[in-house]
Amino acid sequence: MAPVRYRTADVDGFKVFYREAGPADAPKLLLLHGFPSAGHMFRDLIPLLADRFHIVAPDLPGFGQSDMPPREKFDYTFENVARVIDRFTEVIGLDRFAVYAFDYGAPTGFRLAVRHPERITAIVSQNGNAYEEGLSEGWTPIKAYWEDPSQANRKALRAFLTPETTRWQYTHGAPDPTLVSPDGQNLDNFYLARPGADEVQLDLFGDYKSNVVLYPSFQQYFRTHKPPLLAVWGKNDPFFVPAGAEAFKRDNPRAIVRFLDAGHFALETHAREIAESIRDFLK
Fold it and tell me: Which of 33, 54, 264, 270 is catalytic?
């Protein structure tokens, strides 16, 4: 089994923590996590792929072990998150790579693809959305904050930051919740409890509307460049519904869509199935 190395890159003064595994000369795969997690969410997936791929899994800015500078010094928008990760790939020498895009990792990775289509060899979307029909009714309170960024609407979003909600995100839709380890969710709750982390996450909730504005640009990229695309989707996701996965085929008819009997954090229960799909897709 290939060892996993834990590294830190200096990205123009911004510390980005990342996991790395696999042969340096193997095809490259960039794993991008989502809310409220970090690169640790790939702990089961990486060993299943590291024999064939050079894998890099960074913690996004403000998440995990990467820097979380004060909001006065860093504007927490998805554009800035993507800018740091874009530069990160250059710093560590990722010139051409496939992207695994999950949740927040999707608008991050898709921004990279639009910006540098020549660098992207393939896309694996695991509940990583790019279509408005993929947004469930669970987004209603967040959309209300987009329409009216009042303190009352911002305060209402704090319900998404509680330990109980984190556990619900991990277990909702899982066919057997007893198969979901408490370790990942407890670590996420530790990160969410850091001073200032709540305001960072509320800022990103508010800025998620910028991703929806860019959906047409992402879709144009899919139509124009037609990257090999695999959507492997937890069909019971309470936030990103199956219609978002099916929509990829509208702009990229060769896209492969596979549904799993899983929730949002599908890797918690279906890491082996997802790994097999990726290995077959990227061979």
Answer: 264
Structural domain including 33 reads 4-281
Number of domains in the chain: 1
Of 16, 224, 204, 205, nearest to 114 by C-alpha is: 224
Give the model's pLDDT for residue 283.
86
Residue ranges of the chain with pLDDT lower than 50? none
Residue indicated by tokens 């047409």? 216
Say what the pLDDT of residue 1 is: 74
CA–CA dist 250, 254 (Å, integer): 9
CB 173 within 8 A of CB 262: yes
Please provide the DSSP assignment of the chain as one string.
-PPEEEEEEEETTEEEEEEEES-TTSPEEEEE--TT--GGGGTTTHHHHTTT-EEEEEPPTTSTTS----TTTS---HHHHHHHHHHHHHHHT--SEEEEE-TTHHHHHHHHHHH-GGGEEEEEESS---SGGGB-GGGHHHHHHHH---HHHHHHGGGGGSHHHHHHHHHTT-S-GGGS-HHHHHHHHHHHTSTTHHHHHHHHHHHTHHHHHHHHHHHHHHHHH---EEEEEETT-SSB-HHHHHTHHHH-TT-EEEEES--SSTHHHHHHHHHHHHHHHT-
Identify whether 264 is a catalytic site residue.
yes
The Cα–Cα gap between 137 and 96 comes to 37
CATH number, domain containing residue 91: 3.40.50.1820
- Let me know: does 168 contact 232? Beta carbons within 8 Å: no
CB-based contact 69:139 (threshold 8 Å): no
Cα 75 to Cα 81: distance, rounded to the nearest angstrom = 9
Distance (Å) of CA 226 to CA 102, 125, 223, 254 = 19, 14, 6, 8
